[in-house]
Amino acid sequence: MNFIISNSSEVPIYEQIKKEIKRAINSNELKENSMLPSIRTLAKDLRISILTVKKAYDELEQEGYLNTVQGKGSFVKARNKELIKEEQIKKIEEKIGESIQIAKAVDISKQQLMELVDYLYEE
């Protein structure tokens, strides 16, 4: 798995790691029970502190994405499919809300917006 981490980003590095792992899990790039790189290995590969990677892994475990087994490593946790769907619906709602605000700002009617959604959905 390749992590895209930027030292010049305003987003803390541990948050970038979390985002990349969540993206990989949600896109099924990382499947249930897949083993993640060890904290030490990932820290070495990214040339960052072990504590930074540990913080990311700990938070992912608290959020239900990972399961860490002492002496064995961190694994992608089996997740409730309905919970995953709800998380994705929430993201869609946010994006639609942003789109509605933009449409209103440039005087696009609801009908025009719905036609655009229909067109894009059918592609």
Describe this structure in words.
The chain is mainly alpha-helical and 123 residues long. Helix content is 59%, strand content 7%. Strands 1-2 form a two-stranded antiparallel ribbon. A hairpin with a 3-residue loop joins strand 1 and strand 2. Helix 1 crosses helix 3 and helix 2 crosses helix 3. It is elongated. The mean pLDDT is 91.
Q: Unreliable stretches, pLDDT < 50, 5 or more residues?
A: none
Number of strands: 2
> What is the first-to-last residue Cα distance?
30 Å
Strand content: 5-15%
CATH architecture of the largest domain: Orthogonal Bundle
Secondary structure: helix percent: 55-70%
CATH superfamily of the largest domain: Winged helix-like DNA-binding domain superfamily/Winged helix DNA-binding domain
Radius of gyration: 19 Å
Q: According to CATH, what is the topology of the largest domain?
A: Arc Repressor Mutant, subunit A
The string of secondary-structure elements, in order, is HHHEEHH
CATH class group of the largest domain? Mainly Alpha
Biggest sheet: strands side by side, in what order? 1-2
Query: What gross morphology would you assign?
Result: elongated
The count of domains is 2
Task: Give average pLDDT, whole number.
Answer: 91
Which class best fits the helix and strand makeup?
mainly alpha
Number of helices: 5
Largest sheet: 2 strands, antiparallel
